[in-house]
Structure prediction request, 333 residues.
Amino acid sequence: MLILGIETSCDETAVALYDIERGLIAHNLKSQIDLHAPYGGVVPEIASRDHLRCLMPLIKKILTDNDIKKPDVIAYTAGPGLIGALMVGSAIANGLALAWNCKVIPIHHMEGHLLAPMLEEEKPVYPFLALLVSGGHSLLVNVKAVGDYKILGTTLDDAVGEAFDKVAKLLDLGYPGGPKIAKLAEEGDPNAFKFPRPMQKKPGFDFSFSGLKTAVMLKTRELSEQEMLEQNKANIAASFQKAAIDSLIGRTLKAAREHNLSRIIVSGGVGANLMLRASLRDCFDGDVFYPRLELCTDNAAMIAVAASYRLSDQRNPGSVEAMARWPMEDINY
Ligand code: KG4
Ligand code: ZN
Prediction:
């Protein structure tokens, strides 16, 4: 059983082939970073137009490169995300499914991130705690099984990836900010500036990152142009990154402890942050699982593997779906 995965929820046009027996056959993507970089963030209409331009050629290439005529199933991201971008993926997936007479499965983008560690050799066993951290979400999910997701915490304001992107903009590092902050932070002192670790003393497991972002903004204003030269920029990047990671880890460890979970998975774009990965492994007694770096950020392999666990989902109406907002608990069995 061969699944073609399609992901177009934001600024990556991605395709993948996943075989139920053999696992991931191939995946490929075309990033739109160069198109959006001059604007300092994703421009939704540019994103939709580029998905339209690139998706069919990517599908054709992955099929011919792997000597495949047609898949048995098509899985596509139906939400949440940019509505125009989602509609391109949805329309092409449903059109091809009609032409090829194959099953089509709409997938929740965050379930894709959540199940991405299942693409690795060492798969987490249920139950586990999922820390899903991307440009749009910061979620802590108690995962008992596929389709048994209890959201323990979410962000009250900015997602953590969004905070990385905004701080990068303040420091004139360009877009997307996460990898740029991480790189610059390597040269800085994480203790140079004392930034807040919001929510640490609050009950529950929610996150908040806007206060941290504002603290960084105030610090950059306070420092003169002269003081904002390279070393201080690196110190700000390192101190911000440390504060953001401390916030994530504090809430995650608390959730694992209070819910008695001995396994944690981390996924989503910010899950590619090497300092987050190393710090969580150091601080947690149990097992920590991550997808490989390229499968942390948006990709279609995670959409295809998620569909492999949803093949017998009877509720799938097989209809054309595209939802900008889609609460994750709506996909529970
Ligand atoms: O999962 P993803 O590719 O797309 C969304 O679903 O949003 O996540 C993108 C986010 C961006 O905010 C980006 O800056 C952040 O992930 N990111 C990182 C790193 N790589 C990507 N943040 C921190 N450190 C990184 N190494
Ligand atoms: Zn994502």
Notes: The first strand starts at residue 2 and ends at 7. The chain has a mean pLDDT of 95. The radius of gyration is 20 Å.
